[in-house]
Amino acid sequence: MESIKQNTQKTRFFEIIPHNTNIDFVGMIKPAFFVSLALVLLSIGIIVMQGGPRYGIDFVGGTLVQVRFNSPATPDQVRSAMAQVDGGDGASVQRFGDEEGREFLINIPSSGSADSLEKLIESISSKFEEIFGADGFEVRRTEMVGPKVGKELREKGMLAVLLSLGGMLIYIWFRFELRFGIGAIIALAHDVAITLGALAVSGAAIDLPIIAALLTVVGYSVNDTIIVCDRIRENRRLMTRQPLAEIINVSINQTMSRTILTSGTTLIAVVALYIVGGAVIHDFAFALLVGFTIGTYSSIYIASPLLILWENLAARRKGPAPQKGRAA
After folding, report:
1. CATH code for 62-145?
2. SS3 for 106?
3. C-alpha–C-alpha distance, residues 172 and 185, integer Å
4. Over the stretch 292-313, which tens digit does the pLDDT of each residue have?
5. What is the secondary structure of 181-237 as a DSSP string?
6. Distance in angstroms (rounded) separating the CA atoms of residues 61 and 284
7. What is the CATH number of domain 21-53+150-317?
8. Predicted structure pTM score
9. Nearest CA to 270 among 216, 324, 328?
10. Lower CB count within 10 Å: N or C terminus of the chain?
11. Is 87 in contact with 108 (CB distance < 8 Å)?
């Protein structure tokens, strides 16, 4: 008996969150709601002001050329050189990688056959040799996607995100209750919207790796939500006399240590990818970093408290309970 007690004390010593923590999460529903609403509206506003989501070459088609210069250059210089290339009109130029002023991505809207791509690269190389010198640059990567293929990939990518949300709703509906599922889906839509807003602010283009990141965020966030929902369901059987708000508070506090450990270790890996993963996966890692952070927040402040809103709406539909009294 004494050894069991000592082992329990040692386990509690290593707990990040004390077992008797009682943070009033439900009491912060209104401030959290306004913060979330502001972030979602801000994200939508930024995307609208930019003329809609900025799609990458995977989704709109075209030709992508990655060029590295031996000496610093400016986007205007590269853009001016592209204007003198046959078929280079309308090309967008952006910096790429950590070496500021040396490496650029050139997106050309037009696309064609492999032969036309080869001719375009030859034209770019020839013109850049005249302007920057034969040894002044290096074409490091070329990609081409046709407009039909880009449209098909874009539609399938969006469909994948929508189907994942629908699948999560159905699973949680059957696994728990419909109100749990609706709360989880609202939280997931909240996470995706804010992540897209952060990507728009950073200037990242929506392409296949970003869609993969969004699907990863959806899966990660719903996993954390399910843990909390499962604890709420268990505590409702044990705490039959307590109101739902108190049960939710207790459940979130009980799972807080697990949430911090899981989210913390995951974020360490994502931050490492973001810092040293290289420019190719930079936007992917950034989407995961934002999505995992927002997903942890929404599991606590969005998905679970929505159960209280659902219960209040159900109570209003039923109306006030009839009062019992003695007959005259």
Report:
1. 3.30.70.3220
2. strand
3. 9
4. 999 888 888 887 777 777 776 6
5. HHHHHHHHHHHHHHHHHHHHHHT--B-HHHHHHHHHHHHHHHHHHHHHHHHHHHHHH
6. 20
7. 1.20.1640.10
8. 0.75
9. 216
10. C
11. yes
